[in-house]
Sequence to fold (177 residues):
Amino acid sequence: MMATNGKDACGLNGDDPSVSFNGGNDSFGEKSHSSAVNGKEAPPQNGGTGEERFTFSPQPTIEDIRRMQAEFTDERDWNQFHQPRNLLLAMVGEVGEVSELFQWRGEVAEGLPGWTESEREQLAHELSDVMIYLVELAEKCRVDLPRAVLRKMALNRLKYPASKVHGSAKKYTEYKD
Fold:
């Protein structure tokens, strides 16, 4: 597990964050999120039934997370240990902890039916550890993660045009013009 405590990592100093597993976070305001995309109602996702799409809460931003983790690390004089290689290996370890939660379960449906609140909470902790390390690794490597994601999504749209790949899991090199 990542060496942070929830209070310091969240910058809450004693406040207990109220986290919802439907994407809302009472600590940051907005509770309901629209399923509209570009002003239109979003179609069902991943073979869904048309229920409202899951969305993340708007806060904290990736920059907020970067700042909170930088403060946490600075307060403990841990920058000497948080070099890119070490952060990458720590993140891989956390991904292993996420994998353990899914191990031996077979296929797990979207929304995690059958998981207890305790199991969901553990997953939230481990995914948070992965994200915190990812954001810090991006910071140390000077990768502007939001902009990099936008560039990568644009490249993916070129590699996988919806008109060619709809409903197929083939790699882009397998598609013919």
